[in-house]
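PROTEIN DESIGN WORKSHEET
SECTION A - STRUCTURE
LENGTH: 609
TOKENS:
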């Protein structure tokens, strides 16, 4: 649960690794780092989210690399964010004193985070001050694969063995004897350390305090646009900042998560690289961002989606942050994996899967773009119209579905529903703007597909819509998203019955929901997984839209209570222990926090989402 006044507590580890729920996220719109409660950074990709990691101790505590600023003989610690910022404070208690460490990825002075331009200084700032007593403070930078150093008047030049392309410079207000230095400090003493990677010249002012202050001010200026009047307001505020930390500010794209290969479950093989942008995230993210005041970010993401689509030979389910094809999936045998959960993967093998929901995702983004003042040039409309023509027949064909199963394809009801979205939005756009195309055919086919979903996927014995269009009664929580995409009304009797069936049959207990049951819906991979948080937020939305406000509020509160003390959420949760699973933090889960809060607030006020 989000707790801005967390008490000191011992640092928890499992098999030598920090628990995901104990990590803090910092970022600068180009990359992000995860900071442990012990002051150790064990994840940092440079210079971008999807670059090879400089530090990935989360995936191998011995060989992955880290940047430690920590107390020797650490007893206990606590962390919190400066209000309305991504500036993280970690307080460490040793045997004889307490030190406060303030961490941030620095932003340029006067940066406007609402503008789609870079604000990164290319600099990690770590500033420590002793609050009480005395401490022995360790500074240790160990990139993966090791590094060589050269002593300069301005600090250390660091040459990472695996990353000769990076120009790294480590500076401090106190002497550094190498990549491992211990300072003995007393009350009031400061130790400032910066790691920079984008400076052409080494000699520039060393002003970590100023950078931290300007970075905090930039975040607070951005948060002045935040507007929300609904439940769990402090967590919704933090979720908005977390989404911004997953945003590529230059390109407008959004990483699914800033990490790769964090397993779900521990010991399993479901370890994927999430440092890319999924088109399907766009519509959900835009809904969330726009409804809490961040129109510029929403517009930038919509524009990025249309650019990526227009520049592709064919639509893809995911792209790199720049809109290029995602690298082929490879396994890294040099890393043991988080808590020895191999394999570690880079790239993503699902990038070239057939997933028919992409047609609806792109056309829904185009519709939102146009409804908020965007323009549409004839070449782009020609490609969008061709996409709609593809959707006219694609809904009858098998694909791998929203969950990217690695088994044989089926005709998934959700994929069929998103083909309906493609046809519906194309007809709306064409009719509204007087554009060429078979508008009447699209409109009629959209109505036909909606009718078939309600009729053919319905299983009379199970009293629910089925995950596959040919029925059978097996369930998939993506059915909860059909009302959110306006495929079927949430209060349609068959949708209401499906909602009840999912809440019962896919329940993981205590409000948590599985995506599907592996014994009934095999996905081509061994093992099970945890409860998928976004699906529980979709359940909140459906309950609210069906008028079951009290139950929706209870479920929403229970889900928000599962956030870490810093207000961060994973992709999945182990229902038996509550432990976080999967890549962290997960953008989709924070989208759920915002979107469900907005839906609840509007339902209580008698409006519509």
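SECTION B - SEQUENCE
RESIDUE ASSIGNMENT:
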């Amino acid at each position: 649960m989000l707790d801005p006044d967390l008490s000191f507590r011992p640092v928890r580890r499992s098999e030598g690794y920090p628990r995901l729920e104990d990590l803090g996220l910092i970022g600068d719109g180009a990359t992000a780092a995860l900071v442990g409660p012990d002051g150790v950074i064990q994840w940092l990709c440079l210079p971008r989210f999807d670059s090879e990691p400089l530090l990935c101790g989360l995936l191998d505590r011995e060989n992955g690399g880290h940047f430690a600023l920590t107390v020797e003989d650490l007893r206990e610690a606590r962390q919190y964010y400066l209000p309305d910022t991504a500036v993280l404070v970690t307080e460490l208690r040793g045997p004889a004193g307490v030190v406060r460490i303030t961490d941030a990825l620095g932003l340029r002075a006067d940066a406007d985070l609402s503008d789609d331009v870079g604000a990164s200084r290319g600099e990690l700032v770590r500033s420590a001050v002793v609050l009480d007593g005395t401490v022995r403070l360790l500074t240790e930078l160990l990139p993966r694969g090791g590094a060589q150093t050269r002593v300069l008047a301005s600090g250390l030049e660091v040459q990472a063995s695996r990353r000769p392309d990076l120009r790294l410079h480590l500076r401090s207000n106190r002497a550094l004897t190498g990549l491992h230095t211990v300072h003995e400090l007393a009350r009031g003493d400061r130790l400032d350390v910066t790691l920079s990677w984008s400076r052409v010249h080494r000699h520039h002012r060393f002003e970590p305090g100023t950078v931290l202050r300007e970075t905090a001010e930039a975040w607070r200026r951005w948060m002045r646009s935040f507007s929300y009047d609904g439940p769990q307001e402090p967590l919704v505020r933090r979720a908005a900042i977390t989404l911004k930390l997953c945003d590529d500010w230059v390109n407008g794209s959004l990483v699914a998560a800033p990490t790769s290969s964090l397993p779900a479950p521990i010991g399993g093989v479901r370890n994927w690289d999430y440092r890319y942008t999924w088109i399907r995230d766009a519509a959900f993210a835009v809904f969330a961002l726009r409804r809490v005041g961040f129109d510029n970010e929403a517009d930038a993401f919509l524009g990025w989606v249309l650019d990526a689509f227009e520049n592709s030979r064919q639509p893809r389910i995911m792209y790199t942050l720049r809109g290029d094809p995602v690298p082929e999936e490879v396994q890294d045998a040099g890393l043991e994996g988080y808590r020895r959960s191999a394999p570690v993967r880079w790239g993503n093998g699902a990038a070239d899967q057939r997933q028919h929901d992409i047609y609806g995702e792109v056309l829904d983004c185009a519709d939102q773009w146009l409804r908020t003042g965007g323009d549409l040039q004839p070449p782009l409309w020609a490609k969008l119209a061709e996409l709609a023509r593809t959707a006219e027949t694609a809904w009858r064909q098998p694909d791998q579905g929203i969950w990217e199963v690695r088994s044989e394809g089926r005709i998934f009801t959700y994929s069929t529903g998103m083909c309906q979205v493609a046809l519906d939005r194309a007809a709306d756009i064409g009719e509204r703007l007087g554009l060429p195309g078979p508008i009447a055919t699209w409109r009629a086919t959209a109505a036909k597909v909606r009718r078939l979903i309600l009729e053919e996927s319905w299983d009379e014995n199970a009293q629910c819509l089925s995950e596959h269009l040919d029925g059978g009664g097996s369930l998939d929580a993506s059915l909860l998203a059909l009302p959110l995409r306006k495929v079927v009304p949430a209060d349609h009797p068959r949708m209401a019955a499906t909602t009840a069936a999912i809440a019962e049959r896919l329940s993981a207990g205590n409000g948590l929901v599985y995506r599907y049951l592996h014994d009934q819906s095999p996905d081509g991979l061994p093992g099970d997984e945890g409860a998928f948080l976004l699906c529980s937020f979709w359940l909140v939305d459906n309950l609210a839209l069906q008028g079951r406000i009290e139950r929706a509020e209870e479920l929403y509160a229970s889900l928000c209570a599962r956030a870490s003390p810093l207000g961060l959420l994973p992709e999945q949760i182990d229902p038996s222990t509550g432990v976080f699973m999967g890549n962290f933090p997960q953008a989709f889960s924070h989208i759920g926090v915002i979107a469900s809060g907005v839906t609840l607030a509007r339902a209580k006020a008698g409006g519509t989402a």
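SECTION C - NOTES
The longest helix spans residues 413-433.
The chain is about 30% helix and 20% strand.
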